[in-house]
Structure formats: structure tokens, C-alpha cells
Amino acid sequence: MNKELTVDILKKIGCKKVTLLSDNKIRASCPLAPFLHKKGTDRNPSCGFIANDEGPTGYHCFTCNSKGTLVSLLYELHGFGKDLSFSFIEEVKRKETFSPLNKIRNYKDKWSKVSANRNLFEEKEVEWEKELENYKGVVHKYIIERGIKREICERWELGYDKEKKRVIFPIRSMKGGLVGAISRTVLPDVEPPYLTHLNFKKSHYLYGEQFLVPKNKSTLSESLDYGLPGQEGVLLVEGTMDALWLSQMGYDNVVSLMTATISEKQAKKLLQIGRPVYLLLDWDIAGIQGRKSVIKQLFEKVLLFDVPSIQSCSCGCNWNKVVRKNSGGYEQRCVNCNSLWVLDYEKKDPGGLSEEEVFSCIKNARRIKKGLTG
Question: What's the CATH class of domain 3-113?
Fold first, then answer.
């Protein structure tokens, strides 16, 4: 891509202090600075670009040592959560002049979108699996301190990116294929704490769906009769750590939405399994709203059970309701006496509870017959 087009694209993605140097060289602030630089800035531009009329434009940041092509940079930014549409990236790819060899290499880029050339899909899955091997076998103390044991880390294939200081959570489809990954920083005050990689869409998958056992087959906990409350159903949680914690307790059918709201594609997967669904979403406002989205998608299609938190109000009731305030916000009140519900944010999600507390909550679950509390 020529120098003029390269400069135009750099400005569109937010690069500052773009300077034209001799020949085809360009210097600019590193667009990856907010994610990879220690202070999150690049005041003294340290990223160099070399425009190439006969091939892809290359770049190299001498601060974070990131390097590659302009297209791979866009995918990297997208993976970090930068608001870049695939249509914009595809437009940049069309403007680049590739030789056939470079085009194949671009399709195999580990951060790129699945190629329209279906013949390369299997090769791409192999590339992703190889990338995962770079992180497997290392468990950061963040996971251990959360109480997760080594065998659970191995089963769920957790890894650690030493360079970027992130725990890696691989995402697999029901058939077991690697479709993406989520990473969580272990450093304080890093935004965003969670990132998606391999350009997968969280709304298309459930974290842990490869372990789901349909209704017509027995899970290990059912075969050995562990006696776990709710072991006949699917436990639905928000966070990845919540899923790991419940899996460690012996539950086979536990999946995470990776957010609070269920999508249509995720709901279809649960319908395909055909088991009752226990709602263990967080017990905050977002979690309550998330429960409403599940009810909207699955009500009258599968048995739904709402799992209460361990909190109770002065009347001893374990159930609450969401009330819309005049100011437009929401508050939680007791179903029985209508007193204001005070949530313990240290125990607002299943991952923050002890095993005994989780079992107690699930034992108190009741079937949703009308709305959330009917």
C-alpha cells in the first residue's frame, strides 16, 4: 500500500503525531500503546511503518516490540476491543497489493477472521491449536488463589501469556473445535480486564459447551450418584471463573454466558441439550436483568429454576424482586415484605461462595412459573 493511503488509515485508527520520513517510512504513535505500553501512552512516537507499493505495509514498535503487517495490526487492535468493523478491515485488505504467497500467509494470521476460502479452515484450526500450545501448561497464581485446582485447569485447558500477563481461557464448540479464547489480565488497573481473541463472537458460544451431556445420556455425577443438588440440570452462570468453580464441585453440565444476557444462539444450544436450566447468574441488577432475558428465550420450552442468593431480609425471605424507581433506576426489594434488599457484593456471584453456600442456594431453587418470582 502506498504512503498516502497508509497515512490515511493510521489517522482513522487514532494514531497521533504521524510523520512522513524519507523514502516510504512513516513514524507515528503506537496504536497498541493503551494495551501494551506500561503507561498506556506513546508520547514520543516509537512505531515505524514502511509503506510498500508492491506488497503489505509493515510496522514495528520499538517500545512494545509488536510487529507485523498493517492488516495484522488491525486484527490485533480488534482483538483488544478496539471498535474496528470487519468491513473496514476488509477494505484495507483490498487496498493492499498481495502476491499469492502473502495472501495465503494473511489468511493464516492467528488473529484474523475465518477466511472466506473454506479450504483453509482446517489449516487455520491447526494454527489456532498451535497457538494455544504456547500458553498451556502454565497456571498463574491468580487462578490458584481463586481456589481452582490443577486438574480443573488441565480439563478446561487454562493457560498463561507471560508476555502480556494474561490468563487464557480457550473457547471450544460443542464438537470440540477451538473457536476462540478469552484472556484476563493479572495486573491491577488494566482496562479492559477481559479481551476476546481469534475474533470469535461470545454470543455464538457457551463457555464449557463441549462438556454438555444431553438429557438422553447420563453425566458422571448422575452415574455415580454424587447427590449434588440440581445435578440433573444445566447450571448457567455469567463468568468463566464461576464455571470453573462449579465444575470443581462435581457438576458436569455447567456453562458460562461470558456476560449477563443470553443470546438466541446460546439459548438454542441449551434447548438442544433438553435439560432443566438453573439460573446462577450474579445476584445484582445486571444478573436479574439477565434472568429476564433467559426467561424470555426459554420459558415454556425447558424447566427453569431460579437460584436465590444467600442473602435474606429481616423477615427471613430468600427471594427478591426488581422494582423500577421513579428516577428511572432499579432497586431490589423483598418479595414478601417489600423491604429494601442489601446485596453483599463480596458474594454477588457463585464464584465468591463456599461449596456449602453454593449447595444451599441450589437447594433453595424454585421453578419459574410466572416471571421471576411467581
Answer: alpha beta
